[in-house]
Amino acid sequence: MTTQFVEAKPSERQPLDGPKAKGLRRTLRLLRLILRPTDYMEDNVRRYGPMFQIGGDDSPPLVYVGDPEVVREIFLLDSSQVSTGQNNGIMRAMVGDHSILLLDGASHQRQRKLLMPPFHGDRLKAYGQLICDITRQVSASWQPGQTIIARAPMQELTLGVILQAVFGLREGARLAELQQLMSTLLDVFAYPITASFLFFPGLQKDWGPWSPWGRFLRLRERLRQLLYGEIRDRRQSLAQPHPDSTERSDILSLLLQARDENGEGMSDAELHDELVTLILAGHETTASAMVWLLYWIHFLPEVEQKLRLELSDLGSDPDPMAIAQLPYLSAVCQEALRIYPITPTTFIRLLRSPMTLAGYDFVAGTALMPATYIIHQRPDLYPEPKRFRPERFWERQYAPHEYLPFGGGHRRCIGSALAMMELKLSIATLQQRFELELPRSRPLKPTRRGLTLAPPASMKIRVKSKR
Ligand code: HEM
């Protein structure tokens, strides 16, 4: 069977042609994708259906995959059939050459094996209380009548969880500086215009400390110094453990002790790049999801009421694990990640050879992009897809290729369980402590934040009362 999807071409009326015109079209397309990512996808779906192709004339095509059956088959492919790391080069400037995001094949598998254990099972349970405590710390100063930009405390919270629970950093000047530095670093790309620096390498010029890229490079260098300092100190304390010190089980300690089949440990450069990757992959994404949750819960009063009722059944000092299992709270978190997934697509899968997937033929080199947003908006899977309705997750079980906020297959997000736990515990803790409201109750659409989609940076919440 031949491919049935259509190429997304500009309007017939467009008089442009030739290589210059193609270049211009590419830039305009990229700008629309950067500035209005969800409109960009919806327009193309309306015109061409859920599978559409970009380019393909002088280079292998990029295909947005909105057909769940094709996604199912893509998620079954392994690294001998597809590569991903080489396409993630856009993130190199942030995460460095050794990051898991940029790896493929055996080195990717090895890194996943090293990184995954601290994100699962009992390890994860141990972070529950910490997440509740950090939520309380972050909201300690909130007072009735106060209006707060939602993003800042949510980001402080998720960064605190990564640095304290995952890296084992507890307190001190280094933790404080890392916290401050990471927030500033990520804010460099927080707006659609500055996010363009990631997409257009030509803009990545150091014009001094006040230019966006120059500022980014200087912040990145300071971050490098801090992380190398932490790695050095931890190596020293592992080599000469203090008699009173307890065994540490955080990811940095585990990575420092990890050895490959040749008995080699990770170099400082490798450790550094993985640490930056975990901070970046785990903190912005989860913070955006939390802000969406605050929005939906307070935009739709019936959602808030149902949540309060569910939480009240657990009493005044519930066990974090009991909170994590609440069915309505879980469904609310799932629905928030469905309606506006934080990453509108998964990573690209680049085909190493020609392939037929679910009846579609693809040439070697095709870049396949499972389009999470398109799939999550399919009315055949999610009736009334624009409506926020958590109950849909009770009425139907969704397969991994139908509900994919964390991607799937051999690149599936390694922090998904931690992220879900953070969402549930921090939202429940805030609900128990405060009555919140939106000062301006109006529908919001996602905006670009770096490589992800987020609620508008200006979204505010107001503290109505404290409990
Ligand atoms: C709501 C929060 C989050 C969302 C929506 C999210 C989403 C994703 C997605 C879509 C991918 C790509 C998967 C694919 O292409 O199949 C991914 C990969 C990844 N995520 Fe997450 N993520 C979140 C939180 C986290 C956290 C908390 C961590 C760790 C601290 C993390 C670490 C990673 C890593 C290391 C990868 C790369 C995996 C690989 O290349 O093998 N993420 N994430």
Give an account of the 3D structure.
It is a single chain. With 467 residues, the protein is an alpha+beta fold. It has a single domain (6-466), classed as Cytochrome p450. Helices cover 50% and strands 10% of the residues. It is built from 19 helices and 13 strands. Strand 7 and strand 8 form a beta hairpin. Helix 13 packs across helix 16 (327-339). The radius of gyration is 23 Å and the shape is globular. It starts with 5 loop residues before the first strand and ends with a strand. Residues 9-16 have low confidence and may be disordered. Bound molecules: protoporphyrin IX containing FE (HEM).
Q: Report how far apart the termini are.
A: 62 Å
What kind of sheet is the major sheet? 6 strands, mixed
Q: List segments where confidence is low: pLDDT < 50 over at least 5 consecutive residues.
A: 9-16
| Amount of helix | 40-55%
Strand order of the largest sheet: 1-2-3-9-6-4
Number of helices: 19
Strand content: 5-15%
The hetero molecules present are:
protoporphyrin IX containing FE
- Structural class, judged by helices and strands? alpha+beta
Shape: globular
Question: Taking all residues together, what is the mean pLDDT?
Answer: 86
- Could you please say which CATH topology applies here? Cytochrome p450
- Level-1 CATH class name: Mainly Alpha
> What integer value in Å does the Rg equal?
23 Å
